[in-house]
Write a structure and sequence with these properties.
The chain is α+β, with helices and mostly antiparallel strands and 519 residues long. It is built from seven helices and 23 strands. It folds into four domains: 135 residues, Beta Barrel (conserved putative lor/sdh protein from methanococcus maripaludis s2 fold), CATH 2.40.420; 103 residues, Beta Barrel (Elongation Factor Tu (Ef-tu), domain 3), CATH 2.40.30; 75 residues, OB fold (Dihydrolipoamide Acetyltransferase, E2P); 189 residues, Helix Hairpins (Orthogonal Bundle). Strands 1, 18, 19, 20, 21, 22 and 23 form a seven-stranded antiparallel beta sheet that branches. Strands 2-12-16-14-13-17 form a six-stranded antiparallel β-barrel. Strand 15 and strand 16 form a beta hairpin. The protein starts with a helix and ends in a 7-residue tail after the last helix.
Length: 519
């Protein structure tokens, strides 16, 4: 072994031991150094010497803190966005940082194109208002005309029904009764004439009257019989032919009147529907042009943006783009609907928005105290608290979609003296203590190695270095909490060298019976 390796190792061991142990313990440990060197190959001429640091484990407090950089922003701000439906240019804009009062004009947008559009829509409005008035007037006239036609059709139907009812229940029964009475009277007269003729013939046969008188009575009887025959024929004609024909004609007239009424109702409905559709079409067209004109008028009014409250004007530029020399809000730039033009922040309350990994989100909560450091002001520390936590994580980058962060809003709670040093858009550093575990066994991260799916460390048992499997808990940038496998007083090798790892793997292969294979 080369002497300078051993001297350097002994010197470091003395410094390390004098820091943690009493002189008596230091002397004992110095006697153990050769054994340690032998175990690590330092006293073997065939193996290169390896320096190790050993520490005795003692309970301590595990603290996990994180630092994130951010910018100071207003916690509450009044945003003014473009309410113009057109994409237009900024004609004038007050400089950023200008103090304004409520109602002051801050920004003016170009409205010349919108005014021309509004004038064109106004011409269409006048045209379609006239068409709508004419359509309404025609609809009223058509309604009156349809009412007259419907009334005439109803009158025709009522008249046809009345004629049919009058004939069926009045005229025909009365005529039939008269004919029957006349026929009965003629039949009686005929019987009387026949009886008288028989009597006259008997008298003529007896020689009481002459033949002329008998012929006269015979003629009267023949006349009565003819009248009876004509009356009977007339009654038969009326009952058999004239009555059915008249009843059929009147029924047909009534049916025609009913169909005419139905046709009139359908025709009136169709014409009214047609007129109503025309009116609705004009109303809809007019409504569309009115909406266009109203939107143009509102957009012209929205081209003048005023301050909603007293305060300092901050332009609505993206910090990400502005840091690259790109300004979205300035005179001559084009803005769109709902784009933020400027904002007036509340200078009394400020915040810092910082990202936090998904794995640490359960260690923070609303109201948790944090510390905000302001570089350039003698690292001034300002108190703060977690004001808000985003509900969903956000992808950190499109190149790393598996990495997501929750965004925290940190409210600053400065003192009166610190408030004067705080300005908007200042770079600050946020320090958060996300975990604090008392009475924990902490070991350096370099002292642990993983093999065969487990974690191992080297412990000095007084004679040699012994590998020991451990179960780990929380970890920070330098240390790891040990749940099982170690206890207070154990002497731990603080750095796992490649030689230690190779020896550990060799031991595991022997224990598992897989020498010569990879773990």
């Amino acid at each position: 072994m080369k002497p300078h390796y051993f001297q350097r190792y002994v010197g470091r061991s003395r410094r390390f031991l004098s820091r943690w142990f009493r002189p008596r313990e230091v002397a004992c440990l110095l006697l153990l150094v050769p054994a340690v060197l032998f175990q690590t190959g330092a006293v073997d001429q065939k193996v290169a010497p390896v320096e190790v640091d050993i520490t005795e484990l003692q309970p301590s407090v595990f603290i996990q803190s994180i630092e994130r950089k951010g910018l100071t922003e207003p916690l509450q701000t009044t945003e003014v966005r473009s309410e113009c439906y057109w994409s237009t240019r900024i004609l004038s804009l007050v400089p950023e940082g200008t103090w304004v009062q409520k109602g002051d004009v801050v920004c003016v947008l170009d409205s010349s194109e919108i005014e021309e559009y509004a004038r064109a829509r106004e011409i269409y409005l006048i045209r379609y208002r006239g068409r709508l008035d004419n359509a309404l007037h025609e609809e009223e006239m058509l309604e009156s005309q349809n009412a007259r036609r419907l009334e005439a059709a109803r009158f025709s139907l009522e008249k046809a029904e009345s004629d049919l009812e009058t004939y069926s229940e009045g005229t025909f029964p009365q005529q039939l009764e008269e004919l029957e009475d006349n026929l009965a009277m003629l039949a009686e007269q005929t019987r009387s004439a026949e009886d008288r003729l028989d009597y006259v013939e008997h008298l003529w046969a007896m020689g009481l009257i002459n033949q002329r008188e008998m012929q006269t009575e015979a003629f009267k009887t023949l006349t009565a019989e003819q009248k009876l025959a004509r009356a009977s024929a007339r009654l038969h004609s009326i009952e058999r032919f004239l009555h059915p024909q008249t009843e059929l004609r009147l029924t047909h007239q009534r049916d025609q009147a009913e169909r005419n009424l139905a046709r009139t109702q359908i025709s009136n409905g169709l014409s009214a529907t047609r007129a109503r559709l025309t009116t609705l079409a004009y109303e809809r067209t007019l409504g569309i042009y009115e909406r266009y004109h109203r939107r143009a008028t509102e957009s012209i009014k929205a081209c003048t943006l005023r301050a909603p409250c007293d305060g300092q004007v901050m332009h609505g530029n993206s910090w990400y783009l502005q840091s690259r020399g790109i300004r979205q809000i300035e005179e001559g730039k084009t803005v769109r609907l709902q784009q933020k033009i400027f904002e007036i922040p509340d200078p009394q309350r400020m915040k810092v928005s910082v990202p936090l990994e998904e794995s640490l989100i359960y260690h923070v909560h609303k109201g948790m105290p944090v510390t905000v450091i302001i570089p350039g002001h003698d690292n001034m520390e300002v108190s703060g608290r977690v004001f808000d936590i985003s509900r969903y994580p956000r992808v950190r980058s499109s190149y790393t979609p598996h990495l997501k962060d929750y965004w925290l809003d940190i409210e600053l709670l400065p003192t009166d003296e610190q408030r004067g040093s705080l300005t908007l858009k200042t770079d600050v550093v946020v320090q958060m203590k996300v975990a604090e575990i008392p009475d924990s066994l902490l070991i350096p991260r370099d002292a642990v190695t993983g093999a065969a799916g487990h974690n191992f460390v080297y412990v000095f048992d007084g004679r040699q270095l012994v590998p020991r499997r451990v179960e780990l808990g929380e970890a920070n940038e330098t240390s790891v909490c040990v749940k099982e496998g170690l206890q207070c007083g154990d002497r731990l090798v603080t750095t796992m060298t490649p030689q230690h790892r190779e020896a550990l793997l060799k031991t595991l292969r022997v224990d598992l019976g897989i020498e010569g294979q990879e773990l």
